[in-house]
Sequence to fold (130 residues):
Amino acid sequence: MSADLSGRWTGAYFYGPSMRSFGFTAQLRDAGGALSLLIDDDPSPLHRGAALLSATASGSREGSSVRFTKIYDDLVRFPDPVHYEGEVDADEAEIAGRWSIRGVSGTFIMTRPRQRAAVRERAVEELLPR
Fold:
């Protein structure tokens, strides 16, 4: 896999016995396998009424494996980094895996529009008479 994973992703992370989910958006930049992300976590009761929680992350992609570490901008309330490990699907439109922080862990999933389908649609449109 030599995909460029750059783009806007939306996702959710899950944890706890009830598998509570919390959403996020990420702007991901993939520079030849070096990843950098700007992340906004949706507000949640666990964040004590905060607005979006912003974070940055950096990591790497090797084949279909992805790893990155998220650091929240608000280091006073959220001083610990969150580690993510996941796998990119064959369509390069989904990353799913596990996150961990201080002995607590859960799962996450993030998606983007399916790029290959859009490329095929453009190719078909170019072949149609005008």
Residues 115-127 form the longest helix (13 residues).
